[in-house]
Amino acid sequence: MKAAVYYKYGSPDVVSIREINTPIPGDNEILVQVMAASLNAYDWHLVRAKPFFTRCLSGLFKPKNNIIGADIAGVVVSAGRNTTHFKQGDEVYGCLESCGKSGLATGGFAEYVCAKESVLAHKPPDISFQEAAAYPMAAVTALQGLRDNGQLKSGQSVLINGASGGVGTFAVQIAKALDAEVTAVCQTNCTDMMCSLGANSIIDYTKEDIQKTNRKYDLILDIAATLSVKTYRRLLKQNGNAVVIGFSTFSHMIKVSLASKRDNKKIGILIANNKNAADLYELNKLINTKKLTSVIDSVYPLDETAKALQHAETGHPKGKIIIRVSPE
Fold it and tell me: Which residues of 37-68 are buried (b: 16+ CB within 10 A; e: fewer)?
């Protein structure tokens, strides 16, 4: 089978397409023919091995897992004898869990992959494989950030910083589905898209300094991780909550991690459980009722995975970048 592989860390140029052996599923695994996969910032961070401490999991001097890609959508080829939820021909999607070498989600940018059935859900029938592949990591992260860590309630106000990317486009829609009032932070060329996704108001960060606004919010979901702890406290209402997804610098991560609860305002980093079929089925409910859709920035064939990584890293994509593995 063909797969996008890398054997050393570096720029997207270290990723190449190779012919490798098709994996054989274990008794507790599902073999999936991958129709489409999606690219996350997570993937190019692994290729770059940045920040450096990611090497503690991915491999100190070279990657332990050589096939990148966490999110997949495809068709079940076979199911191990101890599996119960899927059968041959089922259309599925999910975020992978690696087979034990590192604990990282990898292996999706390939024509076939083995997956634990606990990370897969049945694909909604009315969406394509490319659309389905966009959801797992980004949409589950958005759902957990808003619902679980953010405790967002109907009628509350939420500021979503970094609203135009993969997680952000899902977060705007999920927050609206939770009946919240949404303020989206993005650049000028994304404002129309934010309106179409249901944002109540928009802050164009190229024209307005969000750190100087006088508005207050019940929840801040900082996907871009560019706001300071001081800004979180100033923008939050009493009993407000700031949820930070990732971090822009190591020092920012430390400051957020050490931020204590003061003035009844809570600040914390989201550690999402993306390998979670239960939340995929929650997303299915929103997808099936037309409350959630995937925003696709671009589609690249598997052979152009390196170009897709470069675009993800430097191109400020709007929504998700998809890898077309097999024709639908």
Answer: bbbbbbbbebbbbeeeebbeebbeeebbbbbb
Adjacent-strand bridge partners of 262: 265
- Total-model pTM: 0.92
Q: Between helices 136-143 and 166-177, what is the axis angle to 10°?
A: 40
Distance of CA 206 to the CA centre of its chain: 25
Spell out the domain ranges in the chain.
2-135+294-324, 138-270
Task: Answer yes or no: CATH 3.40.50.720 is held by domain 138-270.
Answer: yes
The domain made up of 2-135+294-324 has a fold known as Quinone Oxidoreductase; Chain A, domain 1 (3.90.180)
How long a stretch of residues is the chain? 328
Task: List the one residue out of 316, 313, 295, 299 whose CA is nearest residue 186.
Answer: 316
pLDDT string in tens for the chain (328-residue length): 999 999 999 999 999 999 999 999 999 999 999 999 999 988 888 888 777 767 777 777 888 889 999 999 999 999 999 999 999 999 999 999 864 444 577 899 999 999 999 999 999 999 999 999 999 999 999 999 999 999 999 999 999 999 999 999 999 999 999 999 999 999 999 999 999 999 999 999 999 988 888 899 999 999 998 899 999 999 999 999 999 997 767 777 777 777 766 778 999 888 888 888 999 999 999 999 999 999 999 999 999 999 999 999 887 899 999 999 988 7
Asked if residues 298 and 324 have their Cβ atoms less than 8 Å apart, the reply is no
Alpha helices by DSSP H, listed for 76-185, are: 129-133, 136-143, 166-177
